[in-house]
Amino acid sequence: MTEEIKIVPKAPKPKKKPESGLYVGRRKESVARVRLTKGSGEWIVNGKTLDEYLPDKVHQQLVKSPLVLFDEAGNFDVFVNVRGGGKSGQAGAICLGVARALNALDAETYRAKLKRSGFLRVDARRVERKKAGLKKARKAPQFSKR
Q1: From CA 117, how far away is CA 130, in angstroms rounded?
Q2: Is 90 helix (H, G, I), strand (E, B) or coil?
C-alpha cells in the first residue's frame, strides 16, 4: 500500500498596490518616515499638526508641494515620524518621503510629473567637515603679512 504523495506548487499571489506603507525620505541629517492614507488632508508630524510642528510657511509649502502638484492635498492623510537635523532638513526629508509614497501608490499616474519636478531626486548635499588650522570648513584666520 504505497501511496504517492503529490506536491502541488502554490500559485503566486497577485501583487496588489499598497494602501499605505512607510516611505523614507532623507535630507542632511534628517530622516522622515511617511505614511499616506486616503482621507481628508490631515497632517500629523511627530504627534503634532503640521502648523504646530513646522510654523514656517515656506517649510509647510515645501512639504505639501508633491500633493499640491496633483491637486491631491485634501485627498490624503499624512502621518510622519521625523528625527535628526533641523527644521529645514526635516521639511526636505518629509517632502521626499511624500513624493516616494505617492509614487508607490500609483507610479503610472504620478511618476513622470514627480521626476520632472525634481521631487524624486535625493539632495545629497551635506555639511562639509572642519579642517585643521581653519576656523570652520573653509574660513581661515585673518592673515597678517607683518
Answers
A1: 34
A2: helix
Checking if the pLDDT of 58 tops 70, the result is yes
What is the residue whose three cell numbers read 535625493? 122
Judged by DSSP in three states, 53 sits in helix
Each residue of 87-116: pLDDT tens digit? 999 999 999 999 999 999 888 888 999 999
Q: Quick one: 20 exposed, middle or buried, by C-beta within 10 A (0-12, 13-18, 19+)?
A: middle
| Measured distance CA(119)–CA(109) in Å, rounded | 15
Type of residue numbered 120: L
The residue among 105, 104, 102, 82 whose CA lies nearest residue 27 is 82
**Cell matching residue 112:** 513622470
Q: Into which CATH architecture does domain 23-117 fall?
A: 2-Layer Sandwich (3.30)
Q: Are strands 43-45 and 48-49 parallel, antiparallel or unpaired?
A: antiparallel
Question: How far apart, in whole angstroms, are the C-alpha atoms of residue 54 and residue 111?
Answer: 27
Neighbours of 49 (CB within 10 A): 11
pTM of the model: 0.81
Q: For residues 5 and 17, what is the distance between their CA atoms, to the nearest angstrom?
A: 36
